[in-house]
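queue> holo job accepted (zinc ion)
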Amino acid sequence: MCQRFSGAPVMAFASVPRADLTFERGSPVRHRSSDIGERWFCGKCGGSLAMWVEDSPDLVDIALATLDDPTYVPPAFHIWRESRIGWFDTVDALPRHERGRPKMSEPKLRVWR
Ligand SMILES: [Zn+2]
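queue> job finished
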């Protein structure tokens, strides 16, 4: 779904506690994109902003490329490798997971705050 949502081979996200997330201007449009969650996008320009999944209801995954400084939160791993487009790969040595994200511990979330 990330490929269809973004129109790109990959997206980079940072998970943040939903309770800590605020949007400074406006609110994202929410679209139920599958039976597991929602995609959030800008109602003005259509930009892909975030995703939310039911199995982690207290988190929102923010699209890093939409931040003023995307380098602030470097990626820690890859997910859904089984959906990788054959002509695309990355050269980093980050852990790769064939399907969804591993369960994250609270200390890792604290690093991202
Ligand atoms: Zn916009």
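queue> The pocket of zinc ion is lined by residues 42, 44-45, 47 (CB under 6 Å).
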